Amino acid sequence: MPRTESRQHSPSLLLDEAERQFSKRGYAAVTLRDIGQALGLSHASIYYHFPGGKEELFTAVTRRSIERHGEALKAILDDSRGDIRGQLAGAAHWLLSQEPLDLIRMEESDMPAIDQDAAKDLSGMLYGKILLRIQDALQEADENGEIHCPHPGLAGNALVGMIESFHAVPPYAIRGSKLEMALEMIDVVLKGLDYRPKAQPGNGSPSGQAIPGAGAGNI
Fold first, then answer.
1. Adjacent-strand bridge partners of 206
2. Which end of the chain, N or C, is less surrounded by CB atoms within 10 Å?
3. Dihedral of the alpha carbons of 120, 13, 93, 181, in degrees to the nearest 10
């Protein structure tokens, strides 16, 4: 029976379902029973493909996801080279068309729950194939004079996190589409908020905040 099931369900279908569940609920919350029930598979069929069980399946799913993201982002960023807004818009379109990465949960919850050598390898892949690609695009745009970005690593990581956060926007809060909201956010980042603190009469401090030590008795 397990062999019959394994022929009917290719490893790619198993990986697809596992990715959907791990992406939405995280490693700790998902069981092999959950994945098996969704596909009509027994535990034996899952172990047939992944003898290491849930941890091996999660590692394979995450590795495949990172590889897929990395290849797509490389192509998108290369195609729009010289146009940082086009690059970031393309990256947003791709990221929001995929299952959510949930980078915070991955690093704080998923990775600590698996073998640490495997976790270190996956974290390195995540940085090199996803985060670093966005950082490099920002750095190149800065060097070409298209933007001023003194900290591309900080900005790139923040942009990926903000784009990914739109996966969690509830339907009632969506304006137009999640992608349109992400593009609006990208424009805000690229244009800046143009912060202009206003000095208050009498103390010269912005926004009415008193300057420490600026009282009359200290002048």
1. 199
2. C
3. -90
What is the reported pTM?
0.82
Q: Which residues pair with 199 in a beta bridge?
A: 206
Q: Taking phi first (over 0 means left), then psi (-120 to 50 degrees means alpha), and beta for anything else, what does residue 176 get?
A: left
Q: What letter represents residue 215's amino acid?
A: G
Yes or no: say if 201 and 208 are a contact pair by the CB < 8 Å rule. Answer: no
Main-chain phi, psi angles of 175, to 5 degrees: -105, 110
Integer Cα distance of 15 and 22 in angstroms: 10
Range list of H helices, the chain: 2-8, 11-25, 32-39, 43-49, 53-79, 84-97, 103-105, 116-126, 132-143, 152-165, 178-191
Residue 20: HSE in the Cβ half-sphere, 13 Å Cα cutoff? 10
| Cα distance between residue 20 and residue 85, in whole Å | 30
Predicted confidence (pLDDT) per residue in 196-215, tens digit: 888 766 655 555 455 455 44
> What is d(CA 16, CA 99) in angstroms, rounded to the nearest whole number?
10
Weakly modelled stretches of the chain, pLDDT under 50: 1-7, 208, 211, 214-219
Contacts 24+ apart (CB under 8 A), 26-30: 26/102, 26/105, 26/109, 26/110, 27/54, 27/58, 27/109, 27/110, 27/113, 27/114, 28/109, 28/110, 28/113, 30/54
Q: DSSP label at 146?
A: S
CB within 8 Å of 202: residues ≥ 6 apart: none
